[in-house]
Design goal:
The complex is a heterodimer of chains A (294) and B (270).
Chain A: H1 2-32, H2 39-55, H3 60-83, H4 91-113, E1 130-132, E2 135-137, H5 139-161, H6 163-173, H7 175-180, H8 185-211, H9 216-222, H10 224-231, H11 236-257, H12 265-280
Antiparallel strand pairs in A: 1-2
Chain B: E1 6-17, E2 21-32, E3 36-40, H1 47-55, E4 63-72, E5 75-76, H2 82-88, E6 90-93, H3 105-112, H4 119-132, H5 134-138, H6 149-161, E7 167-171, H7 179-195, E8 199-204, H8 207-213, E9 216-221, E10 224-230, H9 231-236, H10 238-245, H11 256-259, H12 262-265
Parallel strand pairs in B: 3-8, 3-9, 6-7, 7-8
Antiparallel strand pairs in B: 1-2, 1-4, 4-5, 9-10
Helix pairs in contact in B: 3-6
Classes of the chains: A mainly alpha (294), B alpha/beta (270).
């Protein structure tokens, strides 16, 4: 029983991080219709950037902030340089460009930081686990979860109450109408990429704190795909719920199935689940009911 | 109509889609400052395309002004991106009541105020919109996708007002609405024109309605202006009566047999 509760709790907390990354992904998709397959590498870039600053002796929060600034700039650059000229081109072209981007990022990362696993040292979060009655959770998970929740709240408030947030939602709803009101679609796209880069970076940093940092964190970033497909491609609450579901699913598979199929169950399970889920509900949980071929 | 107090001047404009399909074939239109001008025509005549050429939205559909020029207050705008044109004070109300469905009515209006940077001017704008559309005030916290068609049309016009425009391009505000609602909306449009001094270029299929509101009108057919005159004269024109007002010379309804001769009688076409 304790094992179930503990797996559940850990799953929810990791899911919070997935939700954060997925939010960034959904944002790009909603605003500009770009299916971004480079999200995994984007999480990795953010993680490496904050790791580098942290290893220089800068406090963790400060390096996180620096990472946010760099992520913002990188997001705008990527949109300006690579995606701006693809507006109006066929969807497949744009998808292929994001695949290319993912390889480009991966290569650059290996070039700069090498392929060895790196860890945040000294550890940012204490190794002492925290106890809630019978449940024991690593403090990394708890803090990561809280950081993810805070950021999710910040993002949601941004969309609801600020000028640019509203403009982004409007563009997602009806781009033509937004344009007619003087909303600049190009700024909106750039903002979406900037926010996605920042969200992915925070997600990557937190994941890096949990497992250490190497190229395989990019794979965790790619988990956004099952997450967003589950939640419905264009639903923000769907992304959050999908993140939690995938987190929990993954941890249960790790805890219960790993002994029978050692090795990769944890990695495969989300994708297998996604495939089965799609048979049953092709639009995801809260997706707009419109046929999207992915 | 050729005096120099016109706010918008379209000179001999030609529009092509995808660089090959010629949709507008040399159209010239003038809108006087503070006036209402109607643009009439059947389906597919190119009315909406002209509005999109003015507002710049055309570029978004892979269309282009290939010849002629569009001038707004003496400035050429046919090469500008839509957001710049909007900043100059032109706003297009796209046909089909395109509200931002997932936002509330008030959020819709606030998107209209996107170009205003200060909180106070947004508040003033909201007050003005609610003054003209008291019904929107009651619905301000409802999701725009779920309000009635008439309210959506009001939201869309109100949203356009929030940009503090000098010229509104209205595309078929009467489409799919009940007659009473149409009446209400057109009343508000004339009031906006009179009280806020906003010039209006009105595209309509309902010629009767449009000629009541606009003192001057152009008739567009397959991408060409085939007639332009004051509303009174157009109302008396036998062809307009036949094709757009659906009346015979005697003022009675037409029989279907006469309508069938429609094509043959369009003698003004090449």
């Amino acid at each position: 029983m304790d094992l179930i509760l503990m797996t559940l709790a850990t799953g929810i907390m990791v899911g919070g991080i997935y939700a954060l990354v997925a939010l960034g992904w959904v944002l790009i998709y909603k605003c500009s219709g770009v299916l971004n397959l480079a999200m995994g590498e984007m999480t990795l870039i953010g993680a490496y950037v904050s790791l580098s600053f942290y290893s220089m002796g800068i406090p963790f929060l400060a390096s996180l902030l620096i990472m946010l600034v760099i992520g913002f700039i990188l997001g705008i650059l990527v949109e300006r340089i690579f995606l701006d000229r693809l507006i109006g081109e066929p969807v497949l072209t744009v998808i292929m460009v994001t695949v290319g981007l993912s390889f480009f990022f991966k290569g650059t990362l290996e070039f700069i930081w090498g392929t060895d696993t790196r860890v945040f040292s000294p550890p940012v979060f204490s190794i002492e686990p925290i106890r809630f009655g019978p449940i024991i959770i690593g403090s990394v998970y708890l803090w990561s979860f809280m950081a993810a929740i805070i950021l999710l709240v910040v993002f949601v408030c941004f969309f609801k109450y600020t000028r640019w947030g509203l403009a982004m939602q409007a563009t997602a709803d009806d781009e033509m109408a937004a344009l007619s009101l003087g909303v600049s679609a190009r700024y909106v796209y750039a903002a979406a990429w900037a926010i996605a880069f920042m969200a992915a970076g925070v997600g990557g940093t937190l994941l890096g704190n949990i497992n250490g940092l190497n190229i395989s964190v990019a794979y965790l970033g790619l988990l956004v795909l099952p997450v967003v497909v589950l939640g419905g491609l264009n639903s923000v609450p769907g992304a959050i719920l999908g993140g939690v579901i995938i987190g929990v699913l993954q941890n249960f598979c790790g805890a219960y199935l790993d002994q029978f199929f050692p090795g990769g169950v944890k990695e495969i399970a989300p994708f297998a689940f996604m495939a089965v889920f799609l048979l049953w509900k092709p639009y995801g949980i809260w997706g707009w009911e419109r046929i999207e071929r992915v | 109509m050729q005096d120099d107090n016109s706010i918008l001047k379209i000179n001999n404009v030609e529009v092509k889609y995808h660089e090959v399909i010629l949709v507008i074939k040399g159209v010239s239109i003038e809108v006087p400052d503070g006036g209402i001008v109607a643009l009439l025509g059947a389906n597919g005549a190119g009315k909406s395309t002209i509005l999109k050429a003015i507002s710049g939205l055309l570029k978004h559909e892979d269309g282009q002004v290939t010849d002629g020029s569009i001038q707004f207050m003496g400035q050429r705008i046919d090469r500008m991106p839509p957001e710049k044109i909007a900043k100059l004070g032109i706003v297009q109300v796209i046909e089909g009541r395109r509200v931002f469905e997932h936002l509330t009515v008030e959020q819709n209006l606030k998107v209209g105020a996107h170009m205003r940077k200060f909180g106070r001017s947004i508040k003033e704008g909201l007050e003005m919109v609610y003054h003209y559309f008291p019904r929107l005030y009651q619905k301000r916290n409802e999701t725009a996708g779920f309000i009635s068609g008439g309210e959506q049309q009001m939201t869309v016009v109100g949203r356009a007002l929030m940009t503090s425009p000098k010229l509104i391009l209205l595309d078929e505000p009467s489409m799919g609405l009940a007659p009473l609602l149409i009446h209400e909306i057109f009343n508000i449009i004339t009031r906006l024109n009179a009280e806020e001094k906003i010039s209006i270029l009105l595209v309509e299929q309902n010629a009767k309605l449009a000629l009541n509101v606009a003192p001057y009108a152009y008739v567009l057919e397959s991408g060409r202006i085939v007639m332009n005159d004051s509303a009174e004269k157009l109302r008396e024109n036998p062809d307009i009566k036949d094709f757009y007002l659906g009346m015979t010379d005697l003022g009675g309804r037409k029989s279907f047999r006469d309508v069938k001769h429609y094509k043959r009688r369009k003698r003004w076409l090449t």
